[in-house]
Design brief:
The complex is a heterodimer of chains A (about 150) and B (about 180).
Chain A lengths: L3 H9 L5 H47 L4 H13 L7 E5 L11 E18 L2 E19 L4
Antiparallel strand pairs in A: 1-2, 2-3
Chain B lengths: L1 H16 L6 H44 L12 H16 L18 E8 L8 E3 L14 E10 L4 H4 L3 E10 L5
Parallel strand pairs in B: 1-2
Antiparallel strand pairs in B: 1-3, 3-4
Helix pairs in contact in B: 2-3
Classes of the chains: A alpha+beta (about 150), B alpha+beta (about 180).
Chain lengths: ~150, ~180
């Protein structure tokens, strides 16, 4: 199909090449839209996964009076199981040593830093991609139930 | 020779723009491209809104959980003012709000957040600011034990304001009850 002769015939087609130009522009536009969306979908999915882990961990922190090594391991394991690189996860929370008193504030923050690939548009076409550092941060605050 | 080439190029351009087969295919293709793009964009917007809704629910759950720690286990009563104060403190922290409930940078909210907060106590413990067990929440749930109920309305500005409008309000509510031994 893509023989040089066919390309020459297509170029010599007296009906003109408007269809080809339209198809190339449309595909390029849709591909750009899809690639931009794919990156945002990745971020959104990761955010939802981290929110879910934060929720579980914060309730466990309430029960245990702060962030214990066990809860930290749970957070890392849960996120790693979902495909997040353990080395890029930062966890900060109210320390459980000594356990926080009943009713006192406890906080938890989980951060994930990664390189997001974004397509670059050159005119009407995709001219490459760039890596943009991005950080997803989820945080929560509640009160200790430890007594 | 050069003139011949120039004439040929002009002829090719003329052929390109004078396609005698019509442009219906191109027009349909372009229109379908925009329809597909619109569907894609709406789908993405719904995913973003779902994610924000989840964040609001998590924030509310943690805040109401914190407020419920004011339950006095001996008297089985919840002091309304103190519980509300604790609820608001954590709600502001979780939704990243200022003192007057306007959003800080990074908050899911786009405008002032409104809330409702109710405390349900037994008849013997009910006082100023609290309702009596047996009454319903504004969402129609009958509260059978002492507890706290809260709802938040969070205004959100969608990405594609031209399609969905300037403001969408997400309403979430949560009830925490202490089931008493009967």
């Amino acid at each position: 199909m893509f023989q040089p002769r066919n390309i020459i015939l297509a170029a010599k087609d007296e009906r003109g090449g408007a269809e080809y130009v339209t198809v190339v522009i449309a595909i390029s536009f849709l591909l750009f839209l899809f690639l931009s969306g794919a990156n945002n979908a990745y971020t959104l999915t990761r955010h939802a996964q981290m929110e879910s882990v934060l929720r579980e961990s914060l309730f466990e922190m309430e029960r245990q009076g702060g962030l214990t090594p066990g809860i930290e391991t749970f957070i890392r394991d849960s996120l790693t199981r979902r495909g997040i690189d353990n080395a890029k996860i930062n966890i900060a929370g109210t320390n459980s040593v000594p356990p926080v008193e009943y009713g006192t504030q406890i906080t938890l923050t989980i951060e994930y830093t990664f390189a997001a690939r974004r397509p670059l548009l050159t005119g009407l076409f995709i001219g490459g991609a760039e890596d943009v550092p991005q950080t997803i941060r989820v945080a929560g605050s509640s009160a200790s139930r430890f007594f | 020779m050069c003139r011949k080439q120039s004439v040929s190029r002009v002829q090719a351009q003329a052929d390109f723009f004078s396609d005698s087969h019509g442009n219906a295919g191109i027009l349909i293709g372009v229109m379908l491209t925009f329809v597909f793009a619109l569907l894609f964009v709406l789908h993405a917007e719904m995913a973003v809104l779902n994610n924000k809704s989840l964040r609001i629910q998590n924030a509310l759950d943690a805040s109401i959980s914190a407020a419920s720690t004011h339950m006095n286990m001996r008297s089985q009563a919840i002091p309304p003012a103190a519980a509300e104060e604790r609820f608001l403190f954590h709600l502001r922290a979780n939704l990243m709000l200022n003192e007057n409930f306007t959003p800080q940078t990074g908050s899911v909210a786009s405008d002032t957040v409104t809330y409702e907060f109710l405390v349900f106590n037994t008849l013997s413990n009910s006082g100023v600011g609290s309702r009596v067990v047996g009454e319903s929440t504004p969402t129609g749930i009958v509260v059978n034990d002492p507890g706290v109920w809260a709802a938040v309305t969070v205004p959100i500005r969608p990405f594609f304001t031209g399609i969905l409008g300037e403001r969408i309000e997400i309403y979430r509510h949560r009830l925490v009850e202490f089931v008493l031994t009967r």
